[in-house]
Amino acid sequence: MTGGLFGTGAGVFEPPSVERRRTLMAGQVVEYTLKRSGKRRTIGLRVDDDGLTVAMPLRSSERWLNSVLQEKAAWIVKALAGWQSRKVEAIRWEDGAAIPFLGESLTLRLVPSLFASAPMLQRRQLFVHVADASHHAAIEQAVTGWLRREAEVLFRERVAHYAPILGAAPAELKLSSARTQWGSCTASGTVHLNWQLIKLPLRLVDYVVVHELAHLQELNHSPAFWAVVQTACADFKKRRAELRRCGIAE
To answer: For the chain, what percent of residues have pLDDT higher than 90?
Structure first.
């Protein structure tokens, strides 16, 4: 029964299990968290700040698990490396910090002030008024809020530009904070775009916008879907490869 819980017999419940494992992938030893659940029907992979997490059906075979891991080994190793590099480059929320924005860097400038105001961008410097320069969480919140607002404005502009080209009519655009996807599209026509795209070059933002709008024509990744993408993004293969090197999936 879809969404049900497996058991060893009538009335017997087997709880989900979680364990740490390690295996060889693409010539590297990779540690990962394995989660088994009766609610799953497929094997899912997630790479984030916690490393690799593998979710699989409760009573599936080790053979199937190993087959999936080896098939995706190259992607897993590359994705883990991407997340690790982002950890190393974590922003220090202090004056002079580099803030990624549309593929380049803005310089964070903290301005002592008793009154809060929206961050202001001037000549590649982002000015943030703060009462306490040591309150890093508040600075991060202010900058993140500004980035999200900039992302929404830009995404709406790019969707408005590409929708007519693709013959698409999205029902709604929403910002996403997904940890493993740059964008997604629902059958009802809602397009989700990860706000962190605002940190990437505009050509990659455009690729994701085109990719998701194309799903309004073809809700799959068939040859017909890629033909739709190509009508607005002739070099989509190059951009797709570049996007994959940024650490998370499309």
So the answer is: 67
